[in-house]
Design brief:
This protein has 434 residues and is an alpha/beta fold. It contains 13 helices and 22 strands. The longest helix is centred in the C-terminal third of the chain and has 14 residues, at 393-406. The protein binds shikimate-3-phosphate. The site of shikimate-3-phosphate has 11 residues, from helix 1 and helix 5.
Length: 434
């Protein structure tokens, strides 16, 4: 029996909000205090590049009442142009959010900077970063393949832009907004398919929802940003792994506290509830402009196969698809995904990574350019299957959860990669095991 029970109040702080709190702090005038900042490697990469670009960043770990340790960050800045020319390349490690959103800021600073990353990040598409920033007047050079190193010759004379997002990407939306904050005039970002809206909420940007469903985001440039405190709620994308553990486990019940329930992040909860999952949201409230609440998950037999194909839904669950697909395969034997070519541009080619590993576990899968299907399980599960993690935290964690709950013996090529977003992933599972 694989029974998991207990209460989680130490889920990692949200990765997206942590990145933005640090970057906005660096653009604000005064002292920004961030409580409950994420210790994940990606968020730590954002702090280290900010330091390397001349911003004062302090971080401390503080014990709180229930025995947990909370990480707080203090950023001091003098406003939009407080950065200084880095003495070497800015190393973003595995973090696409760091590289892309920082590029928007560096494009408006009057010096050259170079953004690099680890082997996985150096393969990810950066043309989507360069295109709007070039239109705004920055000189950007990429590799012949359109990847990093991203070399930016920034300019203080960055121009306002009206930009139709070619892909539903919160990173691209945010980098354009960050650059536009330095421009002399009003910019408009047009978003046909909604992506996470933390940047708009945290900066208090004006948004207009058109009758055709398209959203416009308005950025007035050269308006000083007053420093304000941020408190980071728990990461709903991390919660998804613990939810899958509870659903797949036997007689399991897990309560996950203080989770960010921003509607642009929790479409996966609706999908799971519609498929019959035992999930209840409790104690909902608003904290710092974000809806927050507790999630109660109970084991569930007879989960219906998940089928995801709507563009808007795909954008809303883009980070949860690895876990949803593995969960659906293990719980029902089937899964189907379309309109998700973006998944091939993440920390790994996630369509390929999921299919390769599911096939090793005996599932019949077929992949196509924008998705894949799991048709059932005909192969025998090997005694000890080797899972290739492809430098991708979400691939590693998705299969680790399935193995835990199904009692399968899987060997991960790289357990440590979970620390990119979820440093206490394995210890949390242990603490729930009965
Ligand atoms: C993120 C946006 C998404 C997501 C990533 C975090 C963000 O990427 O996959 O994990 O914080 O803005 P895209 O903007 O590339 O869709």
């Amino acid at each position: 029996m694989n029974v998991f029970q207990g209460e989680i109040s130490s889920l990692p702080p949200d990765k997206s909000i942590s990145h933005r709190a640090a970057l906005i702090g660096a653009l604000a005038e005064g002292t920004t205090e961030i409580t409950n900042f994420s210790g994940g490697y990606d968020n730590q990469s954002t702090l280290s590049v900010l330091r390397d670009a001349g911003i004062s960043v302090r971080q401390e770990e503080v014990p709180v009442a229930d025995g947990r340790i909370v990480r707080n960050v203090v950023i001091e800045s003098r406003g939009l142009w407080s950065f200084s020319k880095p003495s070497g390349p800015l190393m973003c490690n595995n973090s696409g959010s760091t590289m892309r959103m920082l590029a928007g800021i560096m494009a408006a600073q009057p010096f050259r900077s170079e953004l690099i990353g680890d082997a996985s990040l150096m393969k990810r598409p950066m043309k989507r970063v360069a295109d709007p920033l070039r239109q705004m007047g920055a000189a950007i050079s990429l590799s012949a393949e359109g990847t990093a190193p991203v070399v930016i010759d920034g300019t203080k004379e960055i121009r306002p832009i009206e930009y139709l997002l070619p892909v539903p990407s919160a990173q691209v939306k945010s980098l354009v907004a960050f650059a536009a904050m330095h421009a002399d005039g009003r910019s408009k970002i047009i978003e046909p398919i909604r992506s996470r809206d933390h940047t708009e909420l945290m900066l208090g940007l004006e948004t207009i929802d058109r009758p055709d469903g398209v959203r416009e985001i308005i950025v007035e440039g050269r308006r000083p940003i007053a420093a304000k405190p941020f408190n980071v709620p728990a990461d709903p994308s991390a919660a998804c792994f613990m939810i899958a553990l509870g659903l797949l486990g036997d007689r399991s019940e897990i309560v996950i506290r203080n989770v960010c329930l921003n509607p642009t992040r929790v479409a996966y909860i609706d999908i799971l509830q519609e498929a019959g999952a035992g999930l209840v949201i409790e104690n909902t409230r608003s904290e710092g402009g974000e809806p927050v609440g507790d999630i109660v998950v109970r084991s569930c037999s007879g989960l219906k196969p998940l089928r995801i194909s709507d563009h808007t839904i795909v954008a809303g669950v883009i980070d949860e698809i690895p876990m949803l697909s593995v969960l659906s395969a293990f719980a029902s034997g089937e899964f189907e995904l379309h309109n998700a070519a973006e998944l091939r541009t993440k920390e790994s080619d996630r369509i390929d990574a999921l299919v390769v590993n599911l096939q090793r576990l005996g599932f019949d899968c077929e992949q196509y350019p924008d998705g894949f299907v799991v048709k059932g399980r005909s192969g025998v599960v090997p005694e000890k299957a080797h899972i290739e993690c492809f430098d991708d935290h979400r691939i590693a964690m998705s299969f680790a959860i399935a193995a835990e709950a199904a009692g399968a013996s899987l060997e991960l090529s790289d357990r440590d990669v979970a620390g990119v977003s979820f440093p206490n992933f394995f210890s949390l599972i242990e603490s729930l095991r009965q």
